[in-house]
Design goal:
Elements (H helix, E strand, L loop, with lengths): L1 H12 L3 H21 L2 H7 L10 H15 L2 E4 L3 E4 L4 E9 L3 E8 L5 E8 L13 E8 L6 E8 L8 E7 L16 H11 L3 E5 L2 H4 L1 H7 L8 H4 L2 H10 L4 E11 L1 H12 L5 E5 L6 H14 L14 H12 L18 H9 L2 H7 L4 E6 L7 H11 L5 E6 L26 H13 L7
Parallel strand pairs: 8-9, 8-10, 10-11, 11-12, 12-13
Antiparallel strand pairs: 1-3, 2-3, 3-4, 4-5, 6-7, 7-9
């Protein structure tokens, strides 16, 4: 029935499609130009008449000011891509702000009036090197009932003979990272999972509890004074035990892959857990998280970027530096108030962070280690990588790889890295996938890559 109606509708509307697409293109271009110019009266008049009672000039102006405060001024309007629906037209237009590149979607009536405008990051697409049809995904949960969080285990498609696969567990960086480590239009952990599983390596990626319970924390808060790094990554130990019991996982070939702050924890877990065969440190800092952030603020200022692109983490650099100095000092104790410390996290957190030294841990670790770094990374810089390499180059069990064109998410780019590039579609470079696959499979970790 619906198919018949669709066929009739298609015959009626097909001759009108080119004209309607042209109308959508013209309306979109006019609306975005008017928006950029700040002509709120003209923009309001473009909306469907009934909506004008609710969408006032002041509402439009305030909404646009909020967008500009986050992303900077609008610098470029791209070419619309238009489609014709049953009751509305849709125009998708790439727009470039100073600090972000977004996709603008406009809903338009057949009469050429606006029905709605929305902006969002470009959507993620699977990497070309991933064979989606050869991958199975299993949803899992880890942790106890008070801190349970979800994850995804990707496995190669079932084969005729029963086979066990090596497995890597991915640990995200600081903050409420989801299982894909989503940043703007990028999902680096999902890329890594699909790429490695295509190469016959199982991958487990997990939502951090800070992501799973983010709304709960906002509504009810949590004990920042006593919060620890171990709590932040506590689910990992449950994941290791759970994966060891999976019939298709080689229990003696479970590796930890940590990105950024996750790299510190990866080395620590590999050192303290006999079930972990080795670890991979991706963009792992050798200095504290707050020192990294101070460096980021200065870097962004040096290339003409607004530190506001850091999401308001540092509202006053001078005050933040005082908090950082206290966190580094001998005066830090369990009684130091959390509000006097970076990010409002208490002394337990920072004392534990101070105890984690990736150089010392890796030197003492009698397990294979692979250290990866992007050359364009401004969040964890090549200086950090060089410090690791110079201190650990005599370690027979440690291999290093620097990718000159890659950023913090291990996605390729050109020129100085900026926050805006995280809003561009992209995938983890295939070379990274190949190197990790080779390292995990070969077993001879003393061989430099």
């Amino acid at each position: 029935m619906f198919s018949f109606i669709r066929q009739i509708w298609s015959r009626i509307t097909s001759p009108q499609i080119p004209a309607r697409k042209k109308l959508a293109e013209q309306t979109a271009n006019t609306a975005l130009t008017t928006l950029r110019d700040g002509n709120w009266q003209a923009l309001q008049q473009q909306f469907f008449p009934l909506l004008r009672y609710f969408i006032t000039e002041k509402l439009l102006e305030n909404a646009w000011r909020l967008v500009e405060s986050n992303f900077g001024p609008l610098e470029h309007i791209g070419s619309p891509t238009c489609s014709v629906g049953w009751i509305t037209l849709t125009a998708s237009v790439p727009v470039h702000f100073k600090r972000a590149r977004l996709n603008t979607v406009l809903r338009i009536t057949f009469s050429g009036h606006l029905f709605g405008i929305g902006m969002s990051p470009f959507t993620w697409s699977p990497p070309k090197y991933a064979d989606i049809n050869s991958i199975r995904s299993i949803n899992m949960s880890f942790g106890n009932w008070l801190s349970k969080t979800g994850g995804t285990l990707t496995l190669p498609a079932r084969e005729a003979s029963e086979q066990k696969y090596p497995c890597v567990i991915l640990l995200g960086g600081s903050g409420p990272a989801d299982r894909d480590s989503t940043v703007g239009a990028l999902k680096p952990f999902k890329d890594i999972a699909l790429g490695l599983t295509t190469n016959k390596i199982a991958v487990c990626r997990i939502d951090k509890t800070a992501f799973t319970y983010r709304y709960w924390y906002r509504l009810f808060g949590f004990n920042k004074q006593k919060y620890t790094l171990t709590q932040e990554y506590g689910y990992v130990l449950h994941a290791i035990e759970s994966l060891k019991r999976q019939p298709e996982i080689s229990a003696d070939k479970i590796f930890i892959v940590g990105h950024s702050l996750g790299g510190l924890m990866a080395a620590h877990i590999a050192e303290t857990n006999d079930s972990v065969a080795g670890c991979i440190l991706m963009a792992t800092p050798t200095d504290s998280m707050y020192r990294c952030l101070i460096r980021q603020v200065r870097y962004l200022a040096s290339i003409g970027e607004n530190p506001g692109s850091l999401g308001g983490l540092v509202s006053n650099l001078e005050d933040f530096e005082k908090q950082a100095d206290l966190a580094d000092s001998s005066e830090l104790s369990l009684s130091t108030p959390a509000e006097q410390l970076p990010f409002g996290l208490g002394p337990n957190y920072w004392l534990e962070c101070r105890s984690l030294n990736p150089i010392k841990t890796t030197k003492e670790l009698q397990k294979p280690v692979l250290i990866l770094q992007g050359g364009r990374d401004y969040q964890v810089t090549v200086d950090n990588y060089n410090e690791l390499q110079s201190s650990l180059q005599s370690n027979a069990n440690t291999a290093f790889r620097l990718y000159e064109s890659l950023n913090h998410c291990f996605v390729s780019g050109q020129g100085p890295s900026r926050p805006a590039e995280y809003t561009d579609p992209g995938n983890v470079e295939y070379e990274v996938i190949q190197d990790i696959s080779q390292w995990v499979k070969e077993g001879d970790m003393a061989t430099p890559i």
